[in-house]
Write a structure and sequence with these properties.
Strand order of the largest sheet: 1-4-3-2-34
Shape: globular
Radius of gyration: 24 Å
Number of strands: 34
Structural class: mainly beta
InterPro entries: 6-blade_b-propeller_TolB-like, WD40
Strand content: 35-45%
Pfam families: PD40
Family: Belongs to the TolB family.
Length: 449
């Protein structure tokens, strides 16, 4: 009897130790845990995401990664409000910003391994950072921080500098002008007031120019001067780093910019810029083909996204733009290229003249459907199994599935048939589903690798 009691006590002790160790080991949910109760943590379907890549998302302010290769869910932050996750090119790191309060505009820059094995708070930056200005260097664990946003006059010298960050090390300041880093990590592009510009104190009347400068220092080269107009500093590089995209800010007018800006392309060799399209400035509405030869964009003036919006394929080197087919009385939104460059995915919705009430916007949201077409827009077909209320379709790793947003959740569907599967959600605090003039960005809480 004594042996039996001792044996039972030993079993209880071992069980307790196993539970204790399990609660304090790496924050990874194994693949067979998809049926567990996630009422206080992310509601996920790990098995359905097998071999489809990695998706980083924010749940209740904390950062998680669903890894389809490892079949695991990793929790990467423990406190504060995580926002704006951004993958390194090789998928080995995630950079994000942690805010102490959800209403703050700037926070602490952090970098972490996707399995949570290494995590660093970036020390040594002069001030907190905002949502923009993080650019990973190609095939590297380094990234460039270009602090931006509104700053006080006494902060200008601190925020108009670049910093090279390597996880776990003190950032290195670069003397080059803050701006957009080229894909090869060698050149900075930026917009600035012309030195001899008249009326510098009146933004609506000043002249701006587009410049490039080597990241390690040197003399700036002026590529183009916009007499009487301006360019927003958010220039974009061609994937091969041989040219730039930029937008003209007519008279520096915020109201005019809200209704769309002209998108231009220009090679580094100079010459006259080539007009590609007039469009809204949403970054999710530009998608490069995998080979970098073609830019797919949503074109159309007007700040309401339910009117006058269609897809255009642009050759940035020649300036040629080809309108993709659009069905009557519809708009086309949220384009994305397939990994092999042979197909595109996008959202089609009913075209409306004016939606004034919240209920009308909600009803319009339910007309949004998922479509797939050849690269040139031909042979378009609706993926009807996905249903309605679709936004932000993204191709998964195998090119046969699409990840998309619906009903405040992340879904996955096989484009060749089959029922959609909910991967994550519903989110407890996702962005407003109606947005401003219909536009909603999930980039602050979602990033796919």
């Amino acid at each position: 009897m004594k042996i039996t009691i001792k044996f039972m006590l030993l079993i209880l002790l071992i069980s307790f130790l196993l539970i204790f160790v399990g609660c304090n080991k790496s924050k990874v949910v194994p693949a067979d845990s998809s049926q567990q109760d996630f009422s206080s943590s992310p509601q996920v379907n790990i098995d359905a995401f097998k071999d489809q890549g990695r998706v980083a998302f924010v749940w209740n302010g904390l950062l998680y990664v669903l890894d389809g290769g490892k079949g695991a869910l990793a929790k990467l932050s423990d406190a504060g409000q995580a926002r704006w996750p951004k993958w390194s090119p090789d998928g080995q790191w995630l950079a994000y910003i942690r805010y102490s309060d959800a209403q703050e505009k700037r926070g602490v820059l952090c970098v972490v391994k996707p399995d949570g094995s290494q995590s660093y708070e970036v020390d040594g930056l002069p001030l907190l950072v905002d949502t923009n200005g993080i650019t990973w260097l190609p095939a590297s664990d380094e990234f460039i921080v270009s602090p931006g946003g509104y700053v006080l006059p006494e902060e200008q010298d601190l925020y108009r500098k670049l910093y090279v960050v390597r996880p776990g090390e003190t950032p290195r300041k670069i003397d080059a002008q803050a701006g957009c880093l080229s894909p090869d990590g060698k050149i900075i592009a930026y917009g600035d007031i012309l030195p001899d510009s008249d009326n510098k104190q009146y933004p609506g009347m000043r002249s701006d120019a587009l410049y490039v400068v080597p990241i390690e220092g040197g003399e700036s080269v002026q590529l183009y001067a916009a007499k009487g107009d301006g360019m927003i500093n958010g220039a974009r590089w061609w994937p091969d780093a041989k040219g730039l995209l930029f937008r003209m800010a007519v008279q520096h007018s915020a109201s005019i910019m809200a209704d769309g800006m002209e998108l231009y392309s220009m090679p580094l060799t100079g010459g006259e810029p080539r007009l590609l399209a007039k469009s809204l400035i949403y970054p999710e509405w530009l998608s490069w083909s995998p080979d970098g030869s073609t830019l797919l964009a949503v074109k159309g003036a007007g700040r309401e996204i339910w009117r006058n919006k269609s897809l255009v394929a642009c050759d940035v080197k020649t300036g040629e733009s080809v309108d993709l087919p659009r069905r009557p009385n519809t708009v086309s939104l949220d384009p994305d290229w397939s990994p092999d460059g042979k197909h595109i995915a996008y959202v089609e919705a009913a075209e409306e003249e004016d939606l004034a009430e919240a209920g009308e916007v909600s009803a319009w949201q339910q007309t949004r459907t998922l479509w797939v077409a050849d690269a040139g827009g031909k042979n378009a077909r609706q993926v009807s199994e996905a249903g309605t209320g679709i936004s932000r379709p993204l191709w998964s790793r195998d090119g046969a599935h699409i990840i998309y947003l619906k009903e405040n959740s992340i879904w996955l569907i096989d484009i060749n048939g089959g029922s959609p599967v909910k991967l994550v959600g519903p989110f407890p605090n996702a962005p407003d589903s109606q947005g401003y003039y219909g536009y909603v960005s999930w980039s602050n809480i979602l990033a796919l690798y």
